[in-house]
Amino acid sequence: MTTDAAVRPRRVELAGFLKARRARLSPEEVGLPPAPRRRTPGLRREEVAMLAGVGVTWYTWLEQGRPINASGQVLDAVARTLRLDRAEREHLYRLAEATPLRAGAGTTAVSDVVRDVLHGLDPIPATLTNSRFDIIESNAAHVALFADWHSLPCVHKNLLWCCVTEPRAREWFPDYEREVPHLVARLREAYGRHVGDPSWEEDLRRLHETSPEFAEMWARHEVAEPRDRVLRFRHPVAGDLTFNRTELTFPSAAGLAVAVYPPRDESTRDRLRLTRPAG
């Protein structure tokens, strides 16, 4: 059982972090009129609460490090208001002991046959996902290829979330403007079979709040089915890599698919080795 003595330092760190992030923002940066004669720099607590859509008392208590429950929904709103980047959001979730793990990603049963196929494809990168693009399991080649995608461990473990929440995604993913809308259109097609499902509805709500870009793409109501794609990825060590992306499905694993990334050319096949750890 966690003692209060063990929890108190975390609360103190959370309070200091929120105060520091609030102090670096001016009213003008968040669309508020300038306020003269401020005794301290940055936004006031009530301004953060208003912009985040949470109660002033609740936010004050959060910033004071009081023992209150902080849901993923309100932490997302606070993170968005304070303009936290990826690392800062992860830091906030950890300090608030509310790391937003997503339902379903780590609880899906995978048969030995599917797992053998997935790992037997190595050294070709492959990952097992569900219709919501949660990453259920990946082989060693896929893990190595995307090891440096996030500066911190991936929180959401989802292909779409990893694109729309990573600030450097366009830098490493030259086909971003074409492929991410395709993922959203496929999510829309799958959503038609899950309308009203609380897990799906909560996931979509958080995606809308976390990524205005996703919200804009979702509003287009575009629908797509899976099809073979050519994908390019810019690896920090191996350089530009080009893959033929396809999917394998299994009669015994409804709703799951193995996305496979065979190299499209010999150059990619040769340089793919550079993504693996030395030794």
Report on the structure:
It is a single chain. The chain has 279 residues and is an alpha+beta fold. It has helices at 4-23, 45-52, 56-63, 72-81, 86-95, 112-120, 140-145, 159-164, 169-172, 176-191, 198-210, 212-218, 266-271, and strands at 126-130, 135-138, 229-235, 239-249, 256-260. Strands 2-1-5-4-3 form a five-stranded antiparallel beta sheet. Strand 4 (239-249) and strand 5 form a beta hairpin. Helix 2 packs across helix 3 and helix 11 (198-210) packs across helix 12 (212-218). Mean pLDDT is 84; it is low at 100-106.
Name a few traits of the molecule.
alpha+beta, five-stranded antiparallel beta sheet, 13 helices, 5 strands
Task: Describe this structure in a few short sentences.
By secondary structure, this protein is of the alpha+beta class. The protein is built from 13 helices and 5 strands.
Give the structural class: alpha+beta
Q: In angstroms, what is the radius of gyration?
A: 21 Å
Overall morphology = elongated
* Helical content band: 40-55%
Order of the strands making up the biggest sheet: 2-1-5-4-3
Largest sheet: 5 strands, antiparallel
> Residue ranges: pLDDT <50 for 5 or more in a row?
100-106
Q: What percent strand? A: 5-15%
Indicate the mean pLDDT: 84
The total of beta strands comes to 5
Break the fold down into its secondary structure elements and pairings.
Blueprint: H1 4-23, H2 45-52, H3 56-63, H4 72-81, H5 86-95, H6 112-120, E1 126-130, E2 135-138, H7 140-145, H8 159-164, H9 169-172, H10 176-191, H11 198-210, H12 212-218, E3 229-235, E4 239-249, E5 256-260, H13 266-271
Helix pairs in contact: 2-3, 2-4, 4-5, 11-12
